[in-house]
């Protein structure tokens, strides 16, 4: 998880705040990022769609009523609830934020290995991805040879 935020309201401002944190934490070239969401009003707002366009981010929305479109996000929320929150009730948002921080930034991202990531944590997987990109040989950069005609 690259960025997260909490709020008393699930509105466009909450999504925009999280998006700004995410954009500030990574260097992504325009046109290389996809923002996938459901059809909630916070994701279809003019505020958010305008910001996505300005940042060169492609918006993607799943089919209405298709839970498989958001399966990865739903899986993450299940893990947060079962491993991080574990049924606790928080007296304050600050208390909840601390628990989320400890789980997401202290455990999930740096230490929770995942089969689908080759038994790496999300941070290890991302580091490996960028290391592989840096050492990869460029492809299709050789000049084309003109076809010989008789």
Automatic annotation (TrEMBL):
One of its GO terms (molecular function) is nucleic acid binding. Gene3D superfamilies: Ribonuclease H-like superfamily/Ribonuclease H. This is IS3 family transposase. One of its GO terms (biological process) is DNA integration. It comes from the Bacteria. It comes from Streptomyces bingchenggensis (strain BCW-1). The lineage of its organism: Bacteria, Bacillati, Actinomycetota, Actinomycetes, Kitasatosporales. Residues 1-130 form the Integrase catalytic domain. Signal peptide: none annotated. InterPro entries: Integrase_cat-core, RNaseH-like_sf, RNaseH_sf, Transposase_IS3/IS150/IS904. Pfam families: rve_2.
């Amino acid at each position: 998880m690259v960025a997260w935020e909490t709020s008393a309201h699930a509105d466009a401002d909450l999504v925009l705040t999280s998006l700004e944190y995410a954009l500030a934490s990574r260097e992504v070239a325009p046109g290389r990022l996809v923002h996938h969401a459901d059809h909630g009003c916070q994701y279809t707002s003019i505020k958010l769609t305008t910001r996505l366009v300005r940042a060169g981010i492609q918006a993607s929305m799943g089919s209405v009523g298709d839970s498989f479109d958001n399966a990865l996000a739903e899986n993450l929320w299940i893990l947060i609830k079962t491993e991080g929150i574990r049924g606790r009730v928080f007296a304050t948002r600050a208390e909840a934020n601390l628990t989320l921080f400890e789980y997401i930034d202290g455990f999930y991202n740096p230490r929770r290995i995942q089969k689908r990531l080759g038994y790496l944590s999300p941070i290890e997987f991302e580091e490996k991805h960028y290391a592989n990109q840096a050492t990869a040989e460029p492809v299709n950069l050789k000049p084309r040879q003109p076809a010989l005609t008789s």
